[in-house]
Design a protein that fits this description.
Elements: H1 17-39, E1 51-58, E2 64-67, E3 72-75, H2 77-80, E4 85-90, H3 97-111, E5 120-126, H4 129-138, E6 142-146, H5 149-159, E7 163-166, E8 171-175, H6 182-195
Parallel strand pairs: 4-5, 5-6
Antiparallel strand pairs: 1-8, 2-3, 2-6, 4-7, 7-8
Helix pairs in contact: 3-6
Length: about 200
């Protein structure tokens, strides 16, 4: 004769634990997502590390001369950079360590674009003719422009003292402080070129 064993009776969930765990695993993420949604929290859609110019400002270009290996020639923005993005830096007369670092960063940003680097031009603007001619000899891909001191100050007001990104229509899109991270500038320029 079979007699029941002495001891506790199993609880009502005893046989249902696997089922309860499966339901929790399936339902919990949805419940958590609904809770986050109803709380009103939203992630930033686009996080820009530079100073976004909204709407983009059209640059008023002063008369500029381009330093070449042969000497100086006139330069106009619309002829030289058509269909290209421009990474621009305003170099002071006395190019110290920070200035040299910014020139290196211009080149690194350009190279960092990989196959899209053909869509990017690098421009440095200075009022020091000697520096401009040295830079063009040491870096043939750099467009080295010369202006007078007063026009350089006007350009500084437009572009800022860091690196500026200018679109193919000659509008300032982003400006960065001199201490902005190099990878951040490269990444944001890549995003801009993908949508334009």
């Amino acid at each position: 004769m079979n007699t029941p064993t002495a001891g506790k009776r199993p609880g009502w969930l005893h046989g249902y634990w696997p089922l309860v765990m499966i339901v929790l695993i399936v339902v919990a993420p949805g419940m958590l997502a609904m809770l986050v949604y109803l709380s009103g929290w939203r992630p930033d859609i686009i996080k820009v590390h530079g100073e976004l110019q909204d709407p983009p400002q059209v640059i008023v270009w002063p008369p500029l001369k381009q330093a070449t290996k042969e000497g100086l020639s006139s330069w106009r923005f619309d002829k030289k950079t058509q269909n290209q993005w421009t990474i621009t830096y305003l170099a002071p007369d006395a190019c110290q360590q920070a200035c040299i670092r910014s020139l290196y960063r211009l080149r690194a940003i350009d190279i960092g674009q990989g196959k899209h680097s053909l869509r990017v031009s690098r421009v440095v603007i200075t009022s020091n003719t000697n520096n401009a001619q040295v830079w063009v000899k040491s870096d043939p891909g750099l467009t080295s422009l010369i202006t007078d001191s007063l026009s350089w100050q006007d350009m500084l007001a437009q572009l800022g003292n860091g690196i500026a990104i200018i679109d193919a229509q000659g509008r300032i899109v982003l400006r960065y402080s001199p201490n902005a991270k190099l990878n951040t500038i490269k990444r944001e320029l890549t995003k801009l070129m993908k949508v334009n």
